[in-house]
Amino acid sequence: MIKKHIPNTITCCNLLCGCVSIFFTCHEHILWASVMIFAAAVCDFFDGFAARALNAKSPIGGELDSLSDVVSFGVAPSFLVAWFLSQTGIGWWVYDVNMFPMLAFILAAFAAVRLAKFNIDTRQTSSFIGLPVPAVGLFIASLPFADIALFRNPYFLLAIVAVFSWLMISEVPFFSFKIKNLRFKENILRYFVVIFGIVAAIILKLKALPFIFLFYMLLSVICYRGEKMK
C-alpha cells in the first residue's frame, strides 16, 4: 500500500534537506544552510507523526531515520561550524590545507555514535539519555540568525563541539517533546520551554533561537540531575 511508504518518503526529505544544507555551506550561503537544517527538523517531526497516524512503523524506517539524522543534524551542522572556524584566521596548515576547521567534524562522529546507541537502547521510549542529535543540529543552525560575536568566537565553537559531543553519548537525561496529552502537570517542562521561547522571541526576535535551545538543555540537566530514566 502507498501509505506505508509515506513516512519513509518524509524521512528521505529530511536527508535531502541535510544534503542541500551542506551544499549551501560549501557555497557560503550560510543562512540558507541553516534554513535547510530547520526544514530537516520539520520533516523529522512529521515522519514519526505520519508513521504513528498511518500505523506504518517499520524497522527500516527507524534505521533510515537515524541515517538521515546523522546527515541533517550531525554532518550538516559540522560543516557550518567548520565554516565559522575557517573565518577566524586561525590555521593549522598541512600541505597548504588548514586542518583547524576540521575539528568541527568531531561533532558528526559523536552524533553517529549517539544515534547508534539510541537504536539499541530500550530505555529511551518517552525521554532521552544523552543530548538528542536534532537539538545539537538546531542550536548550531540557529547561530547564523543570532549574529552575536560570541557565537563566532573560535574558542566558544570548540567548547560547543567538545561539550555537545560529550553530552550526546553521556547518561545525562533530557526530556522529549512527545506529548501524550495537554495536562500542565505532566508537561510542565515542555510548557516552560514554550513560554520561554515565546517571551525570548518577542524580545530578541531571531536572536532568541540559540538561547531557546540552550534553555531546553539547561532545564533538562537541572531538573533531571542525579535521576535515573524511567
Describe the structure in your own words:
The protein is mainly alpha-helical. The chain is built from eight helices and four strands. The protein has one domain (2-120, 129-170): Four Helix Bundle (Hemerythrin (Met), subunit A). 66% of the residues lie in helices and 4% in strands. The strands form two sheets. The chain has a two-stranded antiparallel ribbon. Strands 3-4 form a two-stranded antiparallel sheet. The longest helix has 28 residues, at 59-86. It is globular, with a radius of gyration of 18 Å. It starts with 5 loop residues before the first helix and ends in a 6-residue tail after the last helix. The mean pLDDT is 87.
Question: What is shown here, in short?
Answer:
Helix content is 66%, strand content 4%. The chain contains eight helices and four strands; from the N terminus they run H-H-H-E-E-H-E-H-H-E-H-H.
Chain-wise SSE layout:
Blueprint lengths: L5 H21 L3 H24 L5 H28 L6 E2 L2 E2 L7 H15 L6 E3 L3 H14 L7 H16 L3 E3 L12 H17 L4 H16 L6
Antiparallel strand pairs: 1-2, 3-4
Helix pairs in contact: 1-2, 1-3, 2-3, 2-5, 3-4, 3-5, 4-6, 5-8, 7-8
Strand order of the largest sheet: 1-2
By CATH reckoning, the class would read Mainly Alpha
Q: CATH homologous superfamily name?
A: CDP-alcohol phosphotransferase transmembrane (TM) domain
CATH fold label:
Four Helix Bundle (Hemerythrin (Met), subunit A)
β-strand number = 4
- How many discrete domains? 1
Query: Helix share of residues?
Result: 55-70%
Low-confidence stretches at least 5 residues in length (pLDDT < 50)?
A: none
Order of helices and strands: HHHEEHEHHEHH
